[in-house]
Amino acid sequence: MEDVRLILFALWVAVDFCLVFAAILGNYKPGHLKGMIAGEVDGIQTTQEVLVGNAIMMVIPSVMVFLSLTLPYPIIRWANIIVGIFFIGVVFITLAYYFTHNIQTWAYYYVFVITEIVLYGLIVWYAWVWS
User: Fold this and answer.
1) Rounded CA gap, 89 and 96, in Å?
2) Is 44 helix (H, G, I), strand (E, B) or coil?
3) Helix or strand holding residue 126 (H, E)
4) For the whole prediction, is pTM greater than 0.85?
5) The dihedral of CA 90, 94, 96, 15: what is its sign?
6) pLDDT value of position 43
7) Which residues of the chain have pLDDT under 50?
8) Residues 112 and 22: beta-carbon distance below 8 Å
9) Could you give the CA distance from residue 51 to residue 12 in angstroms, rounded to a whole number?
10) Please, which contacts does 122-125 make with residues 24 or more away whose CB atoms are closer than 8 Å?
11) Above pLDDT 70, what percent of the chain?
12) Nearest 5 degrees, angle CA 105-CA 122-CA 69?
């Protein structure tokens, strides 16, 4: 099998690009920046705690890029499985929040959601079959 570390590294980099570009494109939705300036996005008040939580959720995939190349085998295998499954759950919880709160989502958002689920699934798969 190919070097799984490099595959996992590349998958986490791809996830990071998706997260960044989805955030950037979200700023182009009419009214989004106005909501940000007013301190509310998608029905959630912008607080320090919310921003710290978002920062942590963005930092984890970035750190996984590095860890996929540096942590010893058994630890990084399980870290990729656990973190990958966790983020699949986060994506579905976010979707559920959007649907239950009738938050308008645009087609670009679904492109990123589907791509992220596939990437997280591949991370879990490659780590799972890694021997």
Assistant:
1) 10
2) strand
3) helix 107-129
4) yes
5) negative
6) 86
7) 1
8) yes
9) 22
10) 122/11, 123/8, 123/11, 123/12, 123/15, 123/80, 123/83, 123/84, 124/80, 124/81, 124/84, 124/85, 124/88
11) 98
12) 115
Q: In 10 A of CB 30, how many CB atoms?
A: 6
Q: Which two tokens stand for residue 105?
A: 């989502």
Sequence letter at residue 100: T
Do 122 and 11 meet the contact criterion of CB atoms below 8 Å apart? Answer: yes
Question: How far is the C-alpha of 93 from the C-alpha of 108, rounded, in Å?
Answer: 18
Element counts in the chain: helices (H) and strands (E): 5, 2
Contact by Cβ (8 Å): 79, 71: yes
